[in-house]
Amino acid sequence: MKFTFDRDAMIKEIAVTQEIVNNKSPLSILANILLIAENNTLTIKATNASGSFMTKLPVDIQEPGVTTIFCDKFMSILSALPSGEVEFNQNGITVDIKPFATKDQFQLKSMASEKFPEIPSAEGATFFEVSSKEFKELVSQTIFAVSEENSRFFLTGVYLEKADDKLIMVATDGHRLSYAEKEIAQGISDFNSSIIPTKVLYSVIKNAPSEGNIFISVQEKLIFFKFGNYEYSSLLIDGKYPNYRSVIPANQTNSFEIDKKEFESALKRITIMVDKKGARVLFKLESGKLTLLSPDSDLGKAQSEIPCKYEGEGLVMALNPVYVEEPLKVIDTDRIVFEFTESSKAVTLRPEPAADYFHVIMTMNVE
Hints:
Blueprint: E1 2-6, H1 7-18, E2 32-38, E3 41-47, E4 51-58, E5 60-63, E6 65-70, H2 71-80, E7 85-91, E8 94-99, E9 106-111, E10 128-131, H3 132-140, E11 157-163, E12 166-172, E13 176-182, E14 194-197, H4 198-207, E15 213-218, E16 222-227, E17 230-235, E18 254-259, H5 260-270, E19 281-286, E20 289-293, E21 303-307, E22 315-319, H6 321-328, E23 335-340, E24 347-352, E25 357-361
């Protein structure tokens, strides 16, 4: 097996491949990538316990072949090389990597390709096509709200469903819920609602283009994503997702509106004095103003007052600052609104004007 490749083109593909490889042991085949050189094209495959990735790039092949090499070390070598052409030459179990621009030479040990796990094939699968930009927005508005508790495995992924002409994505950890919808499912055949692992979604939204489309196929236990020369597959999370609609508050008659940047800045200052264990920030509402307070602790306390569009009765509510900060990062309006019924019930954080997403946050004890 022998071919030459452009260092910059290769490093771009291996950087994406590394996002799927999660085993760092050089003795594990899952830490390796599969390389298939044929017809002046190099196919690169990677897999882990739940997902896989495949990409292709043009190379100049002198001898076709198939092998596997340790992904992390290959990436380290590429990162150390200057731009330009590089030769890849396998002799037995040894791979020689030689840049044309310098007199360096690296040797990597390979592992037999027969040991590499079989990757799910999308051949024959039915795909639907959606806007890449809008799908990435769906994911970005929800993915941060998944649970990190493995004991509640069915909450560790993002829920995807089709309702009429809408694609809907939801994530929750039991203390908050993020919801987003896009009317981009016109003409798409119905598919089973699915729980998608975050690992594959993070890689998809990072690497999918802002323009163009993503092709998606939802199978019984698998989901496939295709765009450009990239193809992902992932096992779906097996489990019944809770009835998220029952968690979404209805008829929230009270609300307050604030400037997003001003609020973000004040919240950042207050959290300096917030104990990370059982973190909470007090929201003291009065006509025309919002005061943020950190609970009194052994280290001290802090407060910050900002203008607020509110005309109701004075009240105090407590919220986990992380559950507020994370949605703020993906809300793209200058103004935001908190809707609520009473200080002890869940609040809804949304952009102003309202859009096709919102975030529900459970309140905490004030004392």
